[in-house]
Every structure is written in C-alpha cells, then in structure tokens.
Design goal:
6-stranded mixed β-sheet; alpha+beta; 8-stranded antiparallel β-sheet
Amino acid sequence: MTAKTIRGNSETEIREALSQTLSDGFAPSLAIIFISIKQDRDAIIQLLKEKGMDVVGATSSGEFIEGHQSEGEVVIMLVDIPREDYTILFRETAGKELTEVVQQAAIVALSRFKDPAYIAVTTCLNARGELFDGARFVHTLEDCHEGETDIFGGMAGADGELIPSLVFTGEQSTDEGFALLVLDKSKIDLYGVAISGWKPLGRIRTVTKCEDGWLYTIDDQPALDMYLRYLGESLDQKDEATNVFVENISLFHPFLCLDDVDPVLRTPMFVDREKNAISMDYPIPEGGTFQFTLPPDFDIVESVINQAQNMQESVGVQADALLVFSCMGRLSALGPMAAQENDGLHEIWQAPMAGFFTYGEYGKDNSGKNKMHSTTCSWVALKEKNQ
C-alpha cells in the first residue's frame, strides 16, 4: 500500500495538485476525501473518477493533512491498494430502521471478507433536524461481528454550522446514512484508539430526571443551575443563549459519562432557561452517572500522543497511511494545540496523514470496545501485511 495526500481550496487547485502527484507514475485506486460543504464536491469527485479512482468521503468542519490545517478547503488521501483488499458500501437510512440497514451492510461485508474492518463516515444532522443515532450504528455493527472488529471514523461536519452534513461515494451522496470503507484484515493491519484526554473533576453525579433528550435534574437539582455553578459562569440575558453556551462554555467542559468499562464524553449543546434544562449532543439516560471535567490544557494532547507512541513502539512498524477523526469541539477548545496533536500523530507513525474535524467520532476505547464518542480524537494507522 502506498499513500499520498493533496490539498486545495478549489477544483482548480486540486486538479493541479493531483497532476503533480501522479506525474511520477503513482496510480492510486482509492481516494478518501474530506471536504468543506462549500466546495464543488461533484467536480472534484468527477476529476478523481476520470483518473480511475474509487471515492469515499465526508463533508468536514475543518480538514488537515501532515503539516497543514485548513477550514473550508479540501484534503484527499490517495491510496494505491489492490481493489480485492477493500470494498465501499453506501447506505441511505431515511425512512428505514437503522439497525436493519447496518445489519444488511455487515452481511455484505462478511460475504466479501472473512475478517472485515471498517473506516466509517456517517451523517450527523438531516434536513428535518434529526440526529443520526451514531451509538446505535456502531454498537449494531460491532454486534454483527460478535464484538470482534475494528471501527474507526467520524460524523460528517458542515463547517461548524448546525445544518445537514453529507457522506458520499463516487456515485451517491446523502444527508441521512453512512458510507463504509471495508478493509480485509487478512491483508491490512489496523492500529488505533479513540481517546479524549479530558480529566474528571469532583464527585460522581447522577442524572435524576431526563425527558425527550433534555437533562432536567442532576442529583435532584436543576441541571442548568448546577452546571453553571460548577463552571462559575452565567448566561447573559442579552446574548443568544444557545450560541454562547456552545461556543464559549460547553465545548470546554464536556461530561465524562461513566456507565461503561471506559468512559466516554458527551457535550452539552442547548439550554432552556425556563425549564432550567440542558440538551446533550447525545442523551445521558435517567440514572446515568458522570463527572464534570477540568478545563482543557496541554496534558490532553500529551495523553493522545503518549498513547500513540506506546502503541507504535509495541507493534514496531511504520504505517502506510494514517487517518484522524478529531471532534470539532477539540478545535474550539484546544485551539493551536489541535494541530500539534494531529501533527504529533503523523510524526509518530511516519505516514501520510489525512483527517477532518467531525461532529462525532467512532473508534475503539482503551478496553477495545467500539463506541461513538464526543470531543475525542480517534485515529487509525494502516499497514499492509507482508504476503
């Protein structure tokens, strides 16, 4: 497997970068695209198809390759990989039962490969304002393999706006569904983990009232009041509450949910002053437990880099390609440290890297369980096996 990355801010720039990259005889079979929703996606896809490439990708909320991070542009990983080592599956889920659609896709994947692994991109928000159920998606896909598979990826972004985002292949696109790059694990090794680095603060809290996705009480106290007291913050009545909350407060202080072997983060998204309630990006059920978190610092980046370093040293290989799916909330909370984190992963694995800032992440936690995450960095290094 050979991989190279290109970037650009228009179809013209991508055309020029592609021409230069292919000038030495490099002939990739696959293009993985992360692209701003404002770009001419169809033109870029057509360009890649004309060069004989299969295409899979998602819209982004910022995108990056090694040494470069952008917002509103295009990054592409070009991979020369035998076509018999992968397949691409695209599924729309509008009006369908998600579990059944995922199960049917897994049946197809298992008919192609005895031991498949997945790079998954899903939509996030559809045109009706409904969220894609990422937790059910990843749990269903894992269950289809009796817990023995690898799932890494992310939810498509939309340049930071709460509008429909898209996943696509060379032939199809949707704002409600998923695309899977299915890899043959007998030919390709995957090394990766999803890690947030956020540290817990204070005692364990319990959700004591939750209804229709709104968190009303924590430890029998009004949820919004308790959260703001913990932060030492208040909402200015003259400001738009939702925007202030998401942009200036909640992305820096997600909840660390504890009802699993390895905790996951969930991020407050909306507030209701009258109900004194909070709506999370993905609900915490009544009876669920969590801890508040400390403000972000460089230790968050160090924890991601150190774990990657330990994994690379334990396997002792140099990867062929590196894909990174980092939450848009990390970009907001970490600022320039987000680029340091991504570039640090590239330096460890010494492989071409491409990734994007997501609206949700998929990946294995430290216990080896595939999960949907929030405010997390999920990365996976790919290495072709010696045949």
